[in-house]
Amino acid sequence: MTGIIIQARMGSNRLPCKVLKKIGNKTLLEHIFYRLSFLKTPVKIILATSTNPENNIIEEFCDINNITCFRGSENNVLERYYLCSKKYEFSHIIRLTADNPFVDIEELDNLIKFHLETKSDYSHSFESLPKGVGAEIFTFEALEKSFFEGKEPHHIEHVNEYILENPGLFKIATLKTPGEKNKPEISLTVDTLEDYKKACYIVQNSQNEYIDTKKLVQLTIQYERENN
After folding, report:
1. Domains with residue ranges and CATH for the chain
2. 213-218 contact pairs (CB < 8 A, 24+)
3. pLDDT tens per residue across span 162-206
């Protein structure tokens, strides 16, 4: 089974509680789940948070919205992913983070197909898409190897870093995205107050509830022009 694991927590040094902040009429998490409703590939979606009491509200959000919630380590995100994937018997895992409300669903479908067709251990679409729009997918075997062999602090904090640091051990594939979506210099992740203001502007100035990446790029450029 292919699974999507979305990592989320209330704690954030630069923008606390951001995952439940409203962007337009939806919280950041609600934007992600709304967009994922357009995914064509059959997947199971898990929201993975930590056991810290401050994240009880995330579990409550899951209960209200009929979303499967998994709770694990706060700081050992690699372990959280491994134990979650093992529990739900995922053979391929898509990693999303709760600070990216504008994931490109069309390209996510393309990435899953590309990953399976190339029989890769790890595939991503980060190089050409705007930051926060792309995604990554890896096999359970790659995740398990990372869990048992990745012992450095950054391996534990960032699920993909052991794989990226050891390309000789894994088959790594990169999905290229041509055309107007190819804007890696643009950031659409929500990490700071300024990012949040930009996300609100984008949603407020879009005529469609589902904003495609081309429109996201146009509105980002417009926002930066108006605010610089």
Report:
1. 2-226 (3.90.550.10)
2. 213/102, 213/104, 213/107, 213/129, 213/130, 213/133, 213/180, 213/181, 214/180, 214/181, 216/102, 216/130, 216/133, 216/188, 217/130, 217/180, 217/181, 217/183, 217/186
3. 999 999 999 999 999 888 899 999 999 999 999 999 999 999 999
